[in-house]
Amino acid sequence: MSWKKGLIFDLDDTLYLEQQYVTSGFGAVGSHLSPEPEQAALYAQKLHSYVQQFGDGRAFDHLLEEFPQATEGLTVQQLVEVYRSHMPTLELDQVWREQLQKWRDAGVFLGLISDGALIGQQNKVNVLELESLFDHLILTDQLGREFWKPHRRAYELMQQVSGLQGPQLIYIGDNVLKDFIAPRALGWHTVRLRLPGQVRELLEPASEEARPQAEARSVAELISQLETWLRSAG
């Protein structure tokens, strides 16, 4: 198929709020530690509280320290593996599902580029049924950790698969640390979706190279911007 334009999306905190996955993962860890629902819920709640209280990325370390008997013999890495490998409870908003299908039916190339541990990202893709909505998905961990964003490799591969270049493509993401550097360098248009509840909602880009060319504060606003871009794109 010959496409004239393409929309390439990030996954986490773009097509769904990443907090959904965190809640699901903490629940899986809680259930791993105890078959009792109330006790499992307590462990999950504690993990959330550590994130809020400390914000140091060591929630599992704090859990092991506070509950040595319940976690005896377990390591942080083992809890991380439970978190990453669990089948998450996630939901793709119906607005996204209908809009993506509409674009695809209209002949727009749809791609997805996402970082993260492969097993976790693949589980998200499966649960959200994204393979039926996108023409091509690149989970960068398949290429190797060194090719995670902001490396260009995944973006270059998306150009090869789609047959589209630079101004024919637009990247939609949330992370101003890494999402927009490579596509901007390749001449793509870039849009930041900035929503309440995103992990990096308040973060500002550290350099001009990392700054997206446009920003949307709601899914409706983003869809409107993309529709305008699609009408004007050559």
UniProtKB/TrEMBL annotation:
Gene3D superfamilies cross-referenced by the UniProt entry: 1.10.150.520, HAD superfamily/HAD-like (3.40.50.1000)
Keyword vocabulary terms for this entry: Hydrolase, Magnesium, Metal-binding
Spans through the membrane: none
Protein name, per record: Haloacid dehalogenase
Organism: Deinococcus piscis
Lineage: Bacteria, Thermotogati, Deinococcota, Deinococci, Deinococcales
